[in-house]
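Researcher: Structure for this, please.
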Amino acid sequence: MDSAESPTKTQAGEDENYSLLCQAHEEFNNSEFDRCLELLQELETRGESSGPILRHNRAVVSYHKTGCTQHSVLLKELEALTVDADAPGEASGGLSLKQGAAAATVARYNRAVIYYHRHMFGTALEKLAPLVARLEALEKSMAALVAALQLQLLLATNQLNRAEAFLDYLQYKLNLVATAPSSNPNEDPAAAATASPPTPTSNLVVTSPGGATVEGTVSGLGGSLQLLQLITLVLNRKPVVIQEDGTPEYAALKAQQYYIMKDFQMAAKQLMRINNECTNAGTVTPQLSTCIANNMGVIHLRVRHYAIAAQFFQNALNFDQQLARNLRQSSLQTMSSAHSCEILYNLGVAMLHLRRPKEAFQCFLVPVKQFHSNPRLWLRMSEACIMEHEAKLVEEERQSKSETGTSSSSKPYAPQSAGVPEPTLEFAALCLRSALTLTQHYKTRFHMVAVSSEDVEAPEPKDPTQESWRHPQDNNFCNPSKPVSLESLENMQASIYAAHSFVSLRLGDHVTALEMAEQLLACERLSDAHKLLGHMYAGEALMLMDKAAEARDHLDPTSVGTLNAFDFETRDWQLKSVDAAQNVVRYNLAVAMVLQNDLTQAKSLLANLNHSLVSGKAKALRRFIDLKISPVPGGTPS
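Model: Predicted structure, token format:
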């Protein structure tokens, strides 16, 4: 019998297999994928017992050999590995459960990485959940990989509160990240950012001989977690000091911090400095150019430089198209760097402010396919439809005046396909119904969260050593926008009611118009501008329903004098002053009086209307009243 010190024949074979597997890893790290596959094949022919590990590593190496483009093939293989690992009983061929579990762990992580790069963040969170649930039991390097990816996914889905709680869990329970340096605790940045700096990319990993994990692409895990920690704290408006290390990621995060603190000038200067430094160093990439151009556009959009913002968004799209020219043949990293949907969303908002509704509508069509549960996006699409319809009416009225004998109603319209969305009032009504359904659903969920948190009389202090990070909730209903507050959600709902009432009036649906106006007036914390719209739309709907007496109750001119003038000056409306609002309300009241045959009082009310918005209509209505009052020669009053 051999002594314990002398290796047996089986032990010698295992040592040789281990050496071959180590060589395969070395060849993989040197990008010698053909040689790596040869070594893995040799291990398989030798009857190496680590079947799942070999199978996983062969799939990852083959994926890298094809230029990291055949991710669907890799995904199928990874799914098969996890299914086999979840099957009851031991694997065949004498494979150890430990080796199968190690391969399945890495396979699950790699599946989540693929879904992350494909912007399927919800699916990625679902696939990563089993690993996050047993984070403490994972080997340290694997735990760091899983933690970094989980943080990226929480940030990508705007779950900022949960990301911060998860960060506390990593700090105090697993000791994976250090405490970030704080700045003056009295500083309290009040604004949330709308454009994020680049985040570190997640990389596929391969399984090492001992069951641990080795990154497929070299990157500093500690540095990635530290950057993610700073991003999380900045987005949650925590005062931290960002020490730039010369990389664009930290410099862009500094610009993000300036933006949140509403120092837009410094944010723009910081972004331009990044661009100049990278240009001089020759390190500019389409990804970096896209990020800088988009963020510059967001800054100019915030300070109402809409034309400049639109130009930056156009530049960002041009850079992004270089990345997304053929996504089916692109690598995962390139795929994750494409952000056309978010940029088009921003460009559409800029086009609305520039009163270019057709371009805005076309911009919104792309992101609505991905962010179809975003009520704000549906509202913006309806606004583009309304603006386009109103512009057509103005153009038809202008042409009818310039062309003798030509009526706007006699002009033929080009046939439109029912299967292609067009900026029409009918499509606006569909958009508004979707937006209203979503906001009502989210508002109910919002109140449920608020009530459940207020019911606790003495909440227990947060214990970062427990998995309490799963409990915080974010009102991230409007992705890709930041989480919404209750106030902004109610403002959005009021805007939807107002737009819905207006569209219904234009379409002749007076009952729905009145219902939406009444719902608008019933909203809490209603702004003066929306209050005015609610009364005007309700009054118009009632007049069209032959209820002039009820309409007069909504058209009280004295209530307009108490409105906040700032509400009109800051909105992109035709009504730019309280005086304009008073003239419009008085004109509508005069119309209601005429319908009730109160002609004398209506005429006296019209005499003082001299605003350009209603002066022409008031003059025409006065003529009509004069004809009604004055008897026709040789006959009776009409």
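Researcher: Any notable elements?
Model: The chain is about 65% helix and 0% strand. Residues 425-454 form the longest helix (30 residues).
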